[in-house]
């Protein structure tokens, strides 16, 4: 039998749409590991180095070997080749949380191995509320909402419209149903894109 193709679910969308929540669910429910990426942004309360991110400073950030890296709302973020390899050693199906620019790069570089999942919400005002409830500092929320990246990530990039799955994550129980359907179709090999 042919080896099953290794795949990465690239979870993307605007801040607060629930990307990390979805990746945590996939890990808990389906043992799908998340690729841990690198960032220069400060930790939020409760975040742990090596679990949520590899937290870097401006110098150590450049010590890694990135498949792609971006600037997002004033900080740097990058996903390493080693991170992808480490996750693929654990499982054939893994996930990663990226901004839309990173998602486009993953789609270009990995082709069919990258399953793009774009998250949206019905009303963007809900995003501000979610960030506040998550405990983000008000100043951080304001500067993030003003950033070009925030505005850009509200819309699925043209290059991904044909292949991306889209889930509107307003009601968490409905999102779970959609995620369960997605994982079943990927595992059964009935997925089309
Ligand atoms: N369907 C939902 N209904 C209500 N709250 C939600 C829902 N999904 C996620 N949340 C909450 O919204 C907040 C933001 O979610 P999360 O951190 O997963 O977003 P994100 O897209 O990863 O954000 P960022 O890009 O800023 O890291 C969290 O507090 C999370 O618990
Ligand atoms: N292109 C990449 N985007 C990344 C990476 N790691 C995280 N992210 C995205 O950055 C923003 C901000 O994240 P936050 O944790 O500060 O809220 C968000 O869209 C993440 O998905 C990466 O390595 N490359």
Topology:
Layout: E1 7-13, H1 19-30, E2 38-39, E3 54-55, E4 66-72, E5 75-80, H2 81-90, E6 93-97, H3 100-110, E7 114-120, H4 125-134, H5 138-146, H6 148-152, E8 165-168, H7 172-188
Bound molecules: adenosine-5'-triphosphate and ligand LQESDW3C.
Radius of gyration: 16 Å
Bound compounds, each kind once, are:
adenosine-5'-triphosphate, the ligand Nc1nc2c(ncn2[C@@H]2O[C@H](COP(=O)(O)O)[C@@H](O)[C@H]2O)c(=O)[nH]1
Instruction: Report the total helices.
Output: 7
In the predicted model, the low-confidence regions spanning at least 5 consecutive residues are none
Number of domains: 2
Which descriptor suits the 3D outline?
Answer: globular
Helix content: 25-40%
CATH homology group of the largest domain: P-loop containing nucleotide triphosphate hydrolases
Strand order of the largest sheet: 6-1-7-8
Reading off the top of the CATH hierarchy, the class of the largest domain is best stated as Alpha Beta
Quote the beta fraction. Answer: 15-25%
Number of strands: 8
- How would a textbook summarize the main sheet? 4 strands, parallel
The CATH architecture assignment of the largest domain turns out to be 3-Layer(aba) Sandwich
